[in-house]
Amino acid sequence: MLGLHRHPSPAAVPSRVVAFAPRPAVQAMMRAALPRRHARVVVARTASAFRTSFGAGLVDAALVDLDAPGEQGSQAARLARDFPTVAFLGVSAFRAADSGCIARCAELGFVDILAERMDGVVLPHAIATHSFSVRFAGTFAEAPPVLGLATPLQAAAWRCIVARAGRPVRTQELARMLGLTREHLSRTFSAGQAPNLKRVIDLVRLLAAAELAKNPGYDVGDVARVLGYASSSHLSATAQRVVGTKASSLASLRAVDIIGRFRWKA
Question: Which residues form the domain of 189?
Fold first, then answer.
């Protein structure tokens, strides 16, 4: 059972990293720097395949080989404008001729540019610092007071939920993380004036959906797919039921607005 003095750390979810990396040297750098237990890496060898990978799952970080031959590196880099919630990182040999491309990446909002032969060890730290999941969990580390999640158990469960950054999570999985039975967790979580656990999970997933919906590169169907909803209709039905709005309106709402609407609907 969960003691009142214990605060278990949320189970880490491997980051999903997509990479435009046509050159073997950059692929080798990623394999060495990002073991599978820490990151799920999707390597694309063309800018088109790189773009497609954003619709296949939640992307925490994107790596772009800035020294790839031709114009595809520039095409891949420009996707940073379409997906501002994703941490974009560049890899460069830092030759004099690269200065213009590096400056352009800074304009596009890249969080860092790594030296190809030197900064492989920095890559895991950069992803751990800037990934969408890490930033989301940090932003919502403390449950908003209006939700009334005041007990240690409620706070611990909340941290586990936000650590998933909107990915599906089952009550049984949360119970296992917290060392409880599913029945005990569900019953105890809703103590006092707190909402029930399923509604809180839905709320957190909608907070993530609202953030992702602000990406110009995503429509409602894309957001539903990357967050594991059965369909865009499922996302829309959840948004209507939990916060009383259409899924298409999520992009225009701030987190405080969504939380306020949730409380109003409770």
Answer: 140-265
